[in-house]
Amino acid sequence: MIEALITGKLHQRAEERTSKGGRPFVTAKVRAAVGEAEGVFVNVVAFSESAGAALLALDAGDSLALAGTLKPSAWIDREGNPRPGLDLVAAQVLTLYGLKRRRAAAAGEPEPQERPAQARQGNQQPHQQRQHDPEDFGPQDWPEN
User: Fold this and answer.
1) Residues 134, 111 contacting (CB under 8 angstroms)
2) Which of 2, 10, 16, 76 has the highest count of CB atoms within 10 angstroms of its CB?
3) Residues facing residue 8 across a β-bridge
4) Is 44 exposed, middle or buried (0-12, 13-18, 19+ CB in 10 A)?
5) From CA 11, how far away is CA 93, in angstroms rounded?
6) CB 42 within 8 A of CB 8
7) What is the rounded average pLDDT for all residues in the chain?
8) CA distance 114 to 104
9) Is 21 left (phi over 0), alpha (psi -120 to 50) or beta?
10) Residue 101 has what pLDDT?
11) Contact 138, 101 (CB under 8 A)
12) CA distances from 35 to 32, 63, 96 (A)
């Protein structure tokens, strides 16, 4: 395995699942830029409660950084062409919302009141309720190694 730090944009909303053994986990797909190429998809799984909650709080298109163990993979697209991929077991998730909150606290400023995701209209299905707030997660929540 490779220890990695990946930055990119959430391709679609993360999903919470449960293993056959009853253990909850979160899956997501992130598109990471690779130079001037179109990018590479990173399949993400988070077993950590804090990393999973941070992923669930994001909308498609939100920027994030993930740290964890990485494994290269490959897949075949619709035209039959081999494509590179990456599988990441996320141990830590950093969002721009958590970063802004931390910077404001360090500067002695009040916390930002509105998140960009809240300002966007139509990104969220009306029947879905956010269970987690991404401002609740940031480097201060990462486990000590």
Assistant:
1) no
2) 10
3) 64
4) buried
5) 15
6) yes
7) 78
8) 13
9) alpha
10) 66
11) yes
12) 10, 17, 22
Q: What's the rounded Cα separation, in Å, for the pair 60 and 74?
A: 23
- In the chain, the largest separation of any two C-alpha atoms, in whole Å, equals 55
- Phi and psi for 106 in degrees, rounded to 5? -65, -30
Q: Tens digit of pLDDT for each residue in 82-131?
A: 988 899 999 999 887 666 666 777 777 776 554 444 433 334 443 343 44
- DSSP H or E run through 128: none
CB contact set of 36 (below 8 Å; sequence gap of 6+): none
Nearest to 52 by CA among 145, 113, 136: 136
User: pLDDT value at position 99?
Assistant: 65
Question: What distance in Å separates the CA atoms of residue 47 and residue 44, rounded to the nearest whole number?
Answer: 10
Q: Which region among 5-9, 68-72, 118-122 has the lowest average model confidence (pLDDT)?
A: 118-122
Contact yes or no for 95/59 (Cβ under 8 A): no
Amino acid in the structure at residue 92: Q
